[in-house]
Amino acid sequence: MNRQQVLDMYFMEARAKLIDIAAFLDRVDRAPGEADFRLAAFRQALKELDGGTPERAKNVLLSFSDPSVEPLEKASVKGAIGAFAGNVKD
Amino acid sequence: MVSRTTDDYQDMVTAGCEAVCEPAFWAGYDRKSADGFYDYFCQLTEHEPKRAAKFGLAHFCWLCINPKESEDMGLAKDVIDLIPKFIDKPGVLGIGEIGLNKNSRNELKVLEMHVEVAAKYDQLILVHTPHLEDKLKGTKLILDVLKSDKRIKPERVIIDHVEEHTIKLVKDTGMWAGMTLYPESKCTPARAIDMLEVYGTDRIWMNSACDWGISVPLAVPRTMLEMKKRGHTVDLIDKVAYQNPIQFMRQSPKFKLTA
Q1: What pTM value is reported for the model?
Q2: Among the CATH numbers 2.40.50.140, 3.20.20.10, 3.40.50.150, 3.20.20.140, which is that of B6-249?
Q3: Which terminus of chain B, N or C, has fewer Cβ atoms within 10 Å?
């Protein structure tokens, strides 16, 4: 597919998802109370969208990933939450 | 598919699916004893193939204790000891889905125990990689375990649930990469096709998740339609959705399609 065809096929879907993200951030801002590290991780990942290379999806995933290499001593929970606190920059 | 209704079997056959390949996985809750797994393995190897056959669908499966239940080493050992009792059943293709969940030391030990069984009984291996923020680290740890065991041939291993940040790591090892299609997590059809376009179509397959959570058994047929819309040839779509899984699974002598 050429770029025009990609836009024809995916623009509306991507537009809708982008507005969903904007609405999500508005919703978080309107809500009372403190946010946990996930909001900062999300905002940090958004910056990857401005990257100049076609590896934005990979870079967003990396920004949410635990970069450590040592196994955990014990699994105290089963689930994942989508972001790694240690990656959030002040 | 132990967590799905017969409607899903009917829909899959209608969409052209010929076989189901069902890994042993987490039930959504922790089973309390090896007896629970014994029953589960009976269900996977005896009852579910009969249920699928009623709809003209071949059924194959994989056996293991899922990584989510691997923190309890005693339970894991008891369950792994059960596997040889079922390994010669006609539909059992290998050991899976083994792997990691939270990347803990006990999960790693249980992964190594499963790899030992696979090597001893010359079985194919299907690997689950962790979710979300744990996937990158877990994939690296899993690949290290598999690469360090010289009995394990990379072409007989599939690493499932790859995404854009892990697919190259997997493909560079010579192992197969699986892309699991989910409506919310893991991988959408559009992203799966992107990865095929970027990383090529060799040693890669797509699978529909058909579990107890939000998942779509027809995700692969729908992705095939999207590939067609994107201008991919019938031959290429056939390779990815049909020939590639056959190429991998027929490394097990038990994998046969009658159609």
Answers
A1: 0.97
A2: 3.20.20.140
A3: C
